[in-house]
Amino acid sequence: MVIAADYPFLDILWSMIIFFAWVIYIWMIIVILTDVFRRDDLSGWGKAGWTVFMIVLPFVGVLSYLIFQHDGMAERSSKQAKANKDQFDDYVRSVSDGGGAASEIDKAKHLLDDGAITRDEFDRLKAKALAV
């Protein structure tokens, strides 16, 4: 039976270091392969070559990609983040434009109060706003 005292503190510390190094390595592989497959300037053979290189010679492949492609990775990552932000901003603007049905009904109510439209036109605008 293994007792906790049989596993010294430095062995525990070393096991933790190895575990976290392994997690960091796996995360680097995921980030690099994501970058490789998102690239538009790299052919299919190039993507396959980098992938095979990272599988056959893992540490050499990962380190060489980080050394030779680090500037491109940063640019592509910032472009992707900017594109995601712009897409989100456009979505928010498209959703918030006009203020929705309540805003349309309020505008129609003001037009009705000002006498610019009739009650029938107001009812049609209200029904149209609620249908959307």
**Could you tell me the number of beta strands?**
0
Give a quick account of the main beta sheet: strands, pairing sense, barrel closure. none
DSSP strand content: under 5%
What's the alpha carbon Rg, rounded to whole Å? 30 Å
Strand and helix order: HHHHH
Compute the separation of the termini in Å.
70 Å
Give the structural class.
Answer: mainly alpha
Which residues form runs of ≥5 with pLDDT under 50? Answer: none
Which oligomeric form is depicted? single chain
- State the share of residues found in helices, binned by percent: over 70%
Total count of helical runs of at least 4 residues: 5
Mean pLDDT: 87
Record keyword descriptors for this entry.
elongated; 132 residues; 83% helix; mainly alpha
Task: Describe the model.
With 132 residues, the chain is mainly alpha-helical. Helices cover 83% and strands 0% of the residues. Helix 1 runs antiparallel to helix 2, helix 2 packs across helix 3 and helix 4 packs antiparallel against helix 5. It is elongated and about 85 Å long.
Summary, kept brief:
By secondary structure, the chain is mainly α. It has helices at 9-38, 44-56, 58-96, 100-114, 119-131.
Layout of strands and helices, then pairs:
Elements: H1 9-38, H2 44-56, H3 58-96, H4 100-114, H5 119-131
